[in-house]
Amino acid sequence: MTIDQSKRDLRRDQKALRLSRPVSAEDVRRLTRGIFEAVANATDAVCIACVWPLPGEPDLRPLLYNLHEAGRRVVLPETTPRGQALAFRRWTPGCPMVPGRFDTAHPDGPIDTPDVVLVPLLAFDRSLNRLGYGGGYYDRTLAVLDCPAIGFAWSWQEVKTVPVDAFDMPLSAIVTERETITPPKQKGDLW
Ligand SMILES: Nc1nc2c(c(=O)[nH]1)N(C=O)[C@@H](CNc1ccc(C(=O)N[C@@H](CCC(=O)O)C(=O)O)cc1)CN2
Ligand SMILES: Nc1ncnc2c1ncn2[C@@H]1O[C@H](COP(=O)(O)OP(=O)(O)OP(=O)(O)O)[C@@H](O)[C@H]1O
């Protein structure tokens, strides 16, 4: 099977899984707290890229308010034409949301460059590889941004190995409602 085919199959299965699993309010609180802490640890990150939820995805909307109240700038992706990197636009509480491509929605605020990007995903593995919707949007965006990329997901979205291509960008960390997964220690690391 080609990498493309195995990605397609995994994408289909993981979409169905994510829509079918019930999520408790406690899970939502734990995941939101974990992401907030991961962002707080990136102390010099002023501008944080989040997402406006798609069906079945963890709902980060409470986090947007928390980050805004904590004095961070919040930006959300505008889904650009296929083949382009995402554009991030400033969000403020209650700002109008504009319908965009693939049933996404984005704020109508000014474009801004994030210092850290929270990345949605359908599947992940322990090596911090991710599978997304297949537009390649986050891979293209992270390739040009060169900033920390923190994946967020439910723990049960983990698979043994995500099929990867050369252009796939591994994440800096993945936060779930159970744990935050960070890169394994490398030989030669000072500490
Ligand atoms: N909340 C949220 N916003 C996001 C993303 C995301 O994953 N979550 N994206 C993450 O990249 C970007 C846009 N996402 C995309 C959504 C759908 C397709 C897409 O190709 N959809 C096909 C069906 C694909 C399939 O069923 O396999 C379609 O609608 O025809 C591509 C990118 C930016 N905004
Ligand atoms: N840095 C890049 N430059 C050019 N093309 C890219 C780049 N990254 C990904 N692509 C293209 O995007 C397409 C989709 O990639 P992939 O299947 O890995 O998407 P995904 O990571 O699941 O989706 P997303 O990042 O939107 O959530 C691929 O066909 C690939 O050719």
TrEMBL record:
Its cofactor is Mg(2+). The keyword Ribosomal protein does not apply. Pfam families: 5-FTHF_cyc-lig (PF01812). ATP binds at residues 7-11, 130-138. It catalyses: (6S)-5-formyl-5,6,7,8-tetrahydrofolate + ATP = (6R)-5,10-methenyltetrahydrofolate + ADP + phosphate. One of its GO terms (molecular function) is metal ion binding. Its EC number is 6.3.3.2. Keywords: ATP-binding, Magnesium, Metal-binding, Nucleotide-binding. The keyword Nucleotide-binding applies. InterPro entries: FTHF_cligase (IPR002698), FTHF_cligase-like_sf (IPR024185), NagB/RpiA_transferase-like (IPR037171). Substrate binds at residue 57. It comes from the Bacteria. It is an enzyme of class 6 (ligase). GO terms for biological process: folic acid-containing compound biosynthetic process; tetrahydrofolate interconversion. Belongs to the 5-formyltetrahydrofolate cyclo-ligase family. This is 5-formyltetrahydrofolate cyclo-ligase. It comes from Swaminathania salitolerans.
